[in-house]
Amino acid sequence: MTPDIVDAINMIYDGRVPKNWCYDPTGVEISWLTPSLMSWISGLINRHYQLTNWVFKERPMSYWLTGFFNPQGFLTAVKQEITRQKVAENWSLDKVDYEFKPTKEIVATEDGRIEGKTLPALATGVYIHGMVLEGAGWDKGKYALDESKPKKLFEPFPILLVNAQSTEQPSGPGNKPKQEDKNKDKNYYDCPVYRYPKRNDRYLIIRIPLSCGDGT
């Protein structure tokens, strides 16, 4: 046996993920990173479930964002798809931005499966789930961030509608920005979304503007 195989066997025996399962010989990530072998295998099963149903059955009602190795690429593809659907309105991909809207539905399970959930059909855009708030709570009634509950660091985030909007302003004297749009940033927090609970730019997926309620 080669030294790599021996190291892999020893790590599996200890319940750890072999390094060559997660990195190629140059050190580039080729898989998701988990603290234990059990969670890595669980992730493999859940990812296989989502992709298999997508390929052989139907397009998912909501996409488990955690299950994508490249979630940024998936969100970019969503923006491209919406732009193509708006070709009659002359949308241009470089002048299109994301639009996010939280729903009432919450997927509390870690496997990302949404059996039993019912979501309104979409003309454009997709639903995504699998995100978790850290250090904050969520007010379901106001669709806004709230104070975290005592002794509760993490809270499941609701299913999120991802859509797109054109950033090109229509020309004309009657098309002026609304006052509510000017003040929007004051009551919204540009919340970063990370692949892992590690707050660094390497694992940053996107930033989502979330309402802070009354702004206080």
Total of helices: 5
Give the N-terminus to C-terminus distance in angstroms: 63 Å
In terms of DSSP E residues, the strand content is: 15-25%
Fraction in helix: 25-40%
Q: Into how many domains do the coordinates divide? A: 2
What is the β-strand count? 10
Describe the global form.
globular
Task: Tell me the radius of gyration.
Answer: 20 Å
Strand order of the largest sheet: 1-3-8-2
Question: What ranges have pLDDT less than 50 throughout 5 or more consecutive residues?
Answer: none
N to C succession of SSEs: HHHEHEEEEEEEHEE
How would you state the average pLDDT, rounded?
Answer: 89
Main sheet characteristics: 4 strands, mixed
**Class from helix and strand fractions:** alpha+beta
Short description:
By secondary structure, this protein is an alpha+beta fold. It has helices at residues 3-13, 19-22, 37-56, 71-85, 179-182, and strands at 63-64, 96-106, 126-129, 132-134, 137-139, 144-146, 154-156, 158-166, 188-194, 204-211.
